[in-house]
Amino acid sequence: MELRAMAEADLPFVERLRTDPDLAGPFLWDGWRDPRRFRRRWEQDGWLGADTATLVVTADTDPIGVVSYRRITMAGVAWCWSIGISLMPEARGRGIGARAQRTLVEYLFVYTLAHRVQAETDVDNIAEQRALEKAGFTREGVIRGYAFLGGGYRDEVLYSVLRHEMPPGGNTFPPPGVTV
């Protein structure tokens, strides 16, 4: 499993992963929306913006999913990253999600000043909760009515990891665009 920057050739994969309800799964499928939004985002910043980015998860160089991060304002001038993941069905349940999210957190702590990385997931998404815990996250609690999905508001579980809780792995990450 590796993470790499998005390439233009990845757009059809990402479009399929995020617009096919069977591939997105019950926790990420949010209805039919403009499929050109992926192309527009690519043209805007190559999916590597200052406040939000998406990286491709690969196995043997083949794309099997994506991880993303976005900047969230906390109190005052404080901010953190919120991360997410979407994997192809055949990549789920094999520990890839936990490894990909751990790698992303390590990358963010090496290359940004963030003190906190958090993730939110549906209260019924037990597999993702386990993956986050394996990746080193701590469950903080339930955020009631946080997400609108499937015609109703859903509760989400909030997880986080702080910089001092992530022991350095000795990784010297390359900059975005180079496989990690």
Automatic annotation (TrEMBL):
<dbReference type="Pfam" id="PF13302">
    <property type="entry name" value="Acetyltransf_3"/>
</dbReference>
<feature type="domain" description="N-acetyltransferase">
    <location>
        <begin position="1"/>
        <end position="160"/>
    </location>
</feature>
<protein>
    <submittedName>
        <fullName>GNAT family protein</fullName>
    </submittedName>
</protein>
<dbReference type="InterPro" id="IPR000182">
    <property type="entry name" value="GNAT_dom"/>
</dbReference>
<dbReference type="InterPro" id="IPR016181">
    <property type="entry name" value="Acyl_CoA_acyltransferase"/>
</dbReference>
<dbReference type="InterPro" id="IPR051908">
    <property type="entry name" value="Ribosomal_N-acetyltransferase"/>
</dbReference>
